[in-house]
Amino acid sequence: MKRVIAVANQKGGVGKTTTAVNLAASLAATRRRVLLMDLDPQGNATMGSGVDKSQLERSACEVLLGEAKLEAALMPVEPGGFTLLPANQDLTAAEVRLLTMMAGREIKLRNALAPLRESFDVILIDCPPALNMLTVNSLVAADSVLIPMQCEYYALEGLSALLATIEQIRVAVNERLELEGILRTMFDPRNNLANEVSAQLIMHFGDKVFRTIIPRNIRLAEAPSFGRPVLFHDRESRGALAYLALAGEMIRREEEEGRQPAPSEAAKEPTSDRSGAPDSGGATTRDSVAATTPDSAETKTPDSLAATAPDHAGGSAANGGTRQAEDAADPSDPAPLPGLEATHPGN
Ligand code: ADP
Ligand code: MG
Known about the structure:
By secondary structure, the protein is α/β, with parallel strands linked by helices. Helix content is about 40%, strand content about 15%. The protein has 15 helices and 8 strands.
């Protein structure tokens, strides 16, 4: 897991904000210091975190324009356990101002973030549904990009434009920018097309597709109207479990990357090391969430929560049944879906 993660997809309604807010809360539940930056003038992540966007003294707008320090605009989110940089429609004006600037307009966010980067373990940026200057600022400030995707026909077309933008930014200004992963959202395993698109994604992007799948879940949709992450709305819901599982998957990946031994050391590694075990998908994910979630949290441990998941129809997200949905699609399918032929994941 990289420190600064932009949650981006220029398509609207694919689950960016839902992912940003609920991943922030899930990572915070593992005692990580999390900052969520709302970079969308719609201010949905702000409202979804329980902050009234019409009452902001300072927001992402002032920070981006250099009129306020980031620190001065941050707010604690309770319940949630993370810190928020709020936003509202003022951000549209900021974007217009940025566009008229001659130099340095795409590094504003990176500069504003620099003094506080080390104060957080993870910084999530909720991007607007456009490849505009706000998204460019986010990608320039980020170490990696998490792409939420609904597995539907046209979703793939937009993906190649987004990947091309990421590549351009990598080459021009931010060579460390990586693809954090592609997240399948609002997934319905009974939908054949969803399974087909899912299989295509895995064929093209392999490990870059998160094993965790976010199911369509009503609790996820209604939590924002209570101004809360789903973990604090219905912690046993499939939506809450899925985002805990995603946090666990990201943490596990990070641990595995950090633990990559040098080849000579590898020989000495005890064979019982879990990193050497075959990937068992959701089970491992669950373990690592359980291992890092504070016991004192008022939520039940994810382990016991996860144990309740298999009974639910589409509970594949949090219970290791992800492969079920993937296997359901035939990889030897006919014509490739539009847009994917031209894509290059880059890493
Ligand atoms: P974006 O930020 O990409 O525009 P949102 O996260 O706002 O997308 O999601 C769009 C709509 O879909 C919102 O009303 C949200 O509550 C709903 N939604 C998102 N993810 C899910 C899900 N997994 N299950 C059900 N509804 C969802
Ligand atoms: Mg949004």
